[in-house]
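So, could you explain the following?
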Amino acid sequence: MAAAAATAGARLWWRGIVGAAALTRGAGRPSVLLLPVRRESAGADTRPTVRPRNDVAHKQLSAFGEYVAEILPKYVQQVQVSCFNELEVCIHPDGVIPVLTFLRDHTNAQFKSLVDLTAVDVPTRQNRFEIVYNLLSLRFNSRIRVKTYTDELTPIESAISVFKAANWYEREIWDMFGVFFANHPDLRRILTDYGFEGHPFRKDFPLSGYVELRYDDEVKRVVAEPVELAQEFRKFDLNSPWEAFPVYRQPPESLKLEAGDKKPEAK
């Protein structure tokens, strides 16, 4: 039996999750979980893998989104299914607690886990901040994304009464974006230092910041000083910071040509 196992193992390439695979003495089988490794040929396709659209899941998510909109028409403003078969529900800021409670407790939802809570800053919008709640239903193995919005001065109701995990998430959003959450038991900074001014994830916050910390060997302690740039003016003649990297450049055929522009020549 051991010889047969050795012969079969020689035909495949295996990689152990925790180090090299060692056969259990006398058992004739691996002592750790092994994963098969597939060797790609030289001409293998290296294009990125895109998840194919699942029409059945898309219809089910659309039906459930319409059901949520019918149950809570006062708060739900838009329902959509993304290209990756993920349901997104856009709600009014006043509906944070009712909608999250419904999705957590309803029999057909059971989204009892708040896996993430984040924000997006779009300064060109009147309500520049988009608050995003990512929920997970272990009962139905499904995810849903709830979005709402606010501005710099209007607070959002804290979701701690629905999900305890929202405590530190909301503190992080307050620290990084400056979005105030009403009725939060301990809303204070969580990542930046004491006395930090501003909110680093806002688009109008400078990348260099306002203050730099360094260790002063003369006074034998860390000191805070205003940022000093050796180069006062920097000109970036790029449409995107990623244009400097050829791998991330947009292919010429996908560029939108304005009237009078010539078609990009193939290189």
Notes: The first strand starts at residue 14 and ends at 16.
